[in-house]
Structures are given as structure tokens and as C-alpha cells.
Task: structure prediction
Amino acid sequence: MKASKDKYKRIPVKSMKRETGELSLMSLPAVIWYILFCYLPLFGIFFAFKQFTPKPGESLIKNLFINSRWVGFDNFSFLFRSADMPKIIFNTLFYNSILLVLGIAIPVILAVFLAELHSKRLSGLVQMVTVLPYFLSYVIVGYCVYGFLATDEGQINHLLRLFGAEAVQWYQSPQYWRFILIITELWKSTGYTMVIFLCAITAIDRSLYESAMLDGAGFMDRVRYVTLPQLQPTIATIFILRIGSILNSDFGLFYQVPLDSNSLQPVTQTLDVYVYKALMQQANFSYSAATSLFQSVVGCILLIAANTIIKKIDADSSLG
Amino acid sequence: MKRYCIIPILIMILFLAGCGTENGSSSDVVKLRWVTYDNGSTPLAAKEVIEAANRVSEEKIGVTVELEFQPVEKINLMMASGEYYDMVFTSSWVNFFDKNASAGLYYDITDLVQEKTPALYDSIGKYWDCAKAGNRIYAVPVLKDMGAEDMYRLNSDYFEGEKGMEIPERMSFEDLEPYLKAYKDDNPDKYPLAMDKAGLPGYLNFLERIVNPIIVIPYDQQDEVKAIPFWECEELMNRYRTLHRWYKAGYIHPDAATIDSTAADKSFPVRGGVAWRGYQGYSNPADWGFNVKTSIYDGPYLSRTSEQGAMIGICAACDEERATACLKYIELLSTDRKFRDILGYGIEGKHFNYLENGTVIRLPAGSDLYNTKLYQTGSVVNASVESVSSDFLSDPDQWKAVFEGYDTDGIYSRTNGFAYDQSAKEDIIAALNAIYSDYAAELRTGTSDPDEVIPKIKERMEKAGINEVTDDINEQLSEWLKKSGQDLSEETED
Result:
């Protein structure tokens, strides 16, 4: 530890600058990506307040700014035309808040246990197995789930019949799906988040644990007084980032996994699914821009609020 | 959020990409960009086929085309971003004609087509009506099967051979039941009726669908013509009840509402289909492993929706010269059979051959590399008829019989020519679409009981404002009826 600090001190200021210059150069692809895909398309916000009426053969800019007329907030009205909007918003917030809590708690618990494993091999194996589902697309996951839940050929109904129970028409039984969806999402995302926490844990100074052990701290004490406080900034960061997208839902999870089954609609309809269903027939860019803006504005407000609250509690854990 | 921001990005890219290209023509030959619809991808042999067609058309009328096969999303994006094209596929089901025509995206060809291409104008005849918006013509309808004939396709080896049942030429929607029952009794573990989440093909064709498929005008409305929400159509409700009965009896797969396609499973003895009399495409035993007989249960219904099955629209930004070139090209497709067959089937001797009775058979290279549908590339009626195998010849004059059938048995919509301008109610319609899709798949597969579900749909749709839309449609409709009152009485006399 000491040796490495000395090493950094010895580097002259000039070459430091060169070094950081090279390092910032490495961020260039990311910067370009952000400019191209996040800042440049920002003018698309205008779509949300225009009735977009393109004329063929004219440029997009001209079509958007000259040929289309301002309609104020009219494009947002379709969102509130449906009497179900409270239910849709409830669903979105319900799943997102549960996944926000469980999606952090479970990976933290797993990471804490995994860090205690002495066998690096076993630890690596567990990481690989839990991260793997993250790379599957929801279309594939949807069919895997169907393999379990199909009425005739599904594995679960096979088991049920084996034990003499009656087969369940899963895709027509909404009461189970809140659990199925949450379990599916956790199965898919836990491993990935866990790895982030695992990295944070390995970065914790081992001497803290050694001194805790010398003071007679057991496993639970070490977790409580060393690991968790040290993990707090990471947890706070992930929490803040996720709360920003609380009105967004994973379309794959809520549309592909239930195979768009009509009966399940009361429990699977989130804002993104609703918008897809409403606009699939029409290709109305103004409406989709309006929805996107609505989600982003709400997300932005929540993000700033969460960050302010966390700043009050613990200034070190907040962003910026 | 990610998904929505991808749209402006795509537009940006298209826009940036579009800046560079310029339509420069060096000689007198007019080169047209023609975008047609294709669900899959561009046929592999498209390039050489188009080149072959261009050699002919350049010599005959001095026009060549750059034909592109694009999926519906690309076409929608192209229309919405104002990208330049000359001719585009437009219809009642892909790249909606009514919406685009009333938005002024297509060239008004009313005068031009009569002046410059009288042969084309005469060949379409009364079917011009479906291409009108506000009494002006905005597209060229592709003459194909203009009316929908909905049919069941039954395994005749099994039903006629094994069970000794007779398959009539026509039956009613519900007459299918004994066939389903016979198969189910023999095979309790199987499901006789092929059904996926899209439902039985064409079961809605007996309705003129104004806001597809939520607000409809049934063909059999007796005295006054008006639009109604679909649940007020008793015939449709009965179909849903029948389907639900079949579902409960085990004639339909329990997961039908979530199944994407049943195409891979050839064992179903009963399927639905939409075609025309004399159509052989369902009957080739080599495709199915058994003989198939079709039995028509509906139609032919001729409506604006069905007649708009395929059309070619010309870009509003074209100048008169280019628009004329487009029309000349379409005219050539509609009058010159040899030329028409190139874009339809490929290169003679390589992709297809003529059979002795004048029909066409696709060669293996044609089936693999250029297996397009005729309606994608212009007039179907003017193309040679395809035979499915050399021992199973089609009638080369089948279209004559089909069009005569439309004139004699055709059940005509009384509102042909009426286009609903939905711009004022678009937000409600978006909400209605979302509500409808919450129930549609289970309703049309028979999974849900209509008497239980319809009241729920009704309540939600009424809250979303369906009555406002229906009133708006009926207002526009009565105005249209007043304006075209004369035409209408002539039509009903026919």
C-alpha cells in the first residue's frame, strides 16, 4: 500500500498531465456516443409539441419546424384518455419499486456470502452461472418460461399431473403473474448486479476485517460493521440511477415473457406496454415522443429528489 | 425510454444518409424509385430480375425502376420522415392509404391517368372508387382478388375418404362443427382446428371496418347505413360465441391465444383461409401430405377495405413528368402480359416456365430465389396464372370467373369510397387500440367467453370516448352519403 503511494508521488507533474490526457482520450468513443445518441437527438423533443405532418421529398428539419404546427400539450392527451391510466401507473411503480428493493438487496446478500467463499473456483463458477441469464434476450426467456408454463406440454403442469393435481392454465391466470414476473426479472438481473457489489467488496481494505476479527467480531458483525458501511456508496449510486427510470419498464419482461396474453393484461400492463399497444397501429411519432418526454421528466424529478435526500443523510454517497 | 428515442435517432440517420443522394438522370430514361412491401427480406434474385424487366421497359416506354422490397416499419418511417420515392405500396393493411391520402402524401392522378394512360384507366373500371379520397383519385388499385372469400381448408382424405363425410362447396361458419367433432372423437389428444393468436383468417371480412376492427359497418345493414362499435354486430358476437364453444370442446389448442403461428405443424385437418374461387395454392397435396378441399363460408364481400388490398401510390412531390412515367410503367404492367410475368415470376427458363395451357410453373430456382407474391409488383390479373405442379394445372382464365363472380354473387359495401378522416380523434383511437388489444387475441381464438368479456370492453371503451369517434364517423358518413347520393343509388342497382 505504502509502496504504491510513493510510486505515484514520484511521477513528475508534466508526465502526469500527459498520462491523464491519454486516459481522457480513451473516453472519446463514449463521449462521441453520447453526443450522437443522447444530445443530438434531443431536438426530437419538438416532436412532442408538434402535430408532425411530413411532406414527401422535404427535409426532416423543414417538415418538423415549418410544415408541422404547434399543438401544445395535445399529444399527451392520449396517455390520459384511457381510464386505466392510474392502474397502468400503479403497475409500473409497483414492479419497479419491488425490483428496486429486491434487485439491490438480493445481489448484496449473495455478494456478501460469495466474498466469504475461500474457493476462488467455486466463486467464479457461481458468478458465471448467475450472470449468464443476463445475456439472454427476453424473447428467448419468454419461450423458456413457456416451456415451463404451457398448458399441455409445460413442465410444471407435467409435475402437477404427476402428483394428481389439476393442470393450471397459467397464461389465463393473472393471480400468479406478479410473482412469476418478479422472479423472472430477478433470475435474469441478479447475477449482473451481484458482480458489481462483489467488486466493491473486494476493494474493501482487508485490514479492516483483520482488526475486526482481532476484536472478536463474528461473521454477522463483520458484515454489519465493515462490509455494509463500506458498500453504502455503491448501493446509493445504483439506487439513484435506478430510481431515474422508475416510470420505464422493461418491455421484454412485460410483453414478451407473458406472450402478450390478454388475460394477464391487468397485471402486465405497464406504461411502455400500453404505449406500444396504443401506437402499434398508427406510427405516430409525436405521441411516442410525448410519452418518452413524460417518462424522462418524471424520472429526472425523482432522480434529483432521491439524490437530495441521500445527500442530506450521507453527503458522501450522493452523486455530484 | 430507450425504445422511443430510437425513432428520432433513426430519422436522423436516414436524414443524414438522405442528404447525399440525388436523383440525377443522364439520358432521357426516367429512373423511378419504387418501394413495395415485403414481410421478409428482398428476394435473392431481385437484382437480376429487375434488370431484366428494366431492359424491356426501357425499350418500350423509356422508364426503368429501382424496385425495393421493404417491411412495414421501414415504409412507415419513410412516409413519416418525408423521404423521397416515386411509387410506394399502399393499402388498407400496410401503409394505410386513407390516412396518407387525406394527409396529402400522394399525387392526385385523377386527370393525369385519364389523359396520359387511358388504357390503364379503362382496365381498372369501377374499382377506381376504392382509390378515391374526397372524390379525387390518389392511387392505382392493383387488380387482384378484390373481394374476400373466406374458406375452410379441410383434409379431404380424412373427412371424405375415412369418415365418409361430404365437403360442400359452401357452408356456414358454424357448419364446421361436425367435422371438428369427428376428428376430436378419433383423436382426443389433438386439436382439429389450426388456430394461432391472429385468429381464423378473414373471419372479420363480412364487416366494413372503419376503425379497424373496432368500429364497423356490417354489410347487411338494412335501411340506414351507419357505423357501430363491433359488439353491436350480432353476427360477429355469434361467431365469437361459436369459437368459445369450440374452444371449450377442445377443438382449439388451449394456448392458441399465445401461439405465434401454426404453419410448421402440417397435421391439422382444418385450417382457415382467404382466397378466391379456383385458387389452387391451398390444395397441392405435395405441400400438406394429404388432399385438401376448400369450402367457402363467407363472401365474396367487396368493400373499400378488401378492394384496397394492394395499391400503388405516387409521391406528391413528383413533378408531372415523373408522375406520368409512373403511370406509364403501371400501365405497361397492366397491359403487357410477358412483361408483367418478369416482375411476377422472374426470368423465363430460369425462375419459371410456361406450361402448355398458358399457366406458369415456378422452377426450383424461382421458388427459392424469387418467390414474391404477385400483388407486390403490380396487376395480378394481367399476370399469367400459376399452377402448383405440372400435373395439377390451374385454369388460365380463372380471373374472368372470379370477376364475374364479383358481379353476380358479390356482396357490396354500400359505403365504398368513404374514407374516414381520423385526424381529430387520433388520441381516442390510440386509446381504443390499446384497449382492444387487451382482449383481441383471446376473443378471436375463442379462449374467452364473449358474454363475459364484451361488457368489460364496452365499459372501458366508452370511458375512453368511443362514442365520440362513432358520432364523428357517422357525421362524416352522412355528409359523404349526401354528396355521393347519386352514385350510391346507381351502385345498388347494379
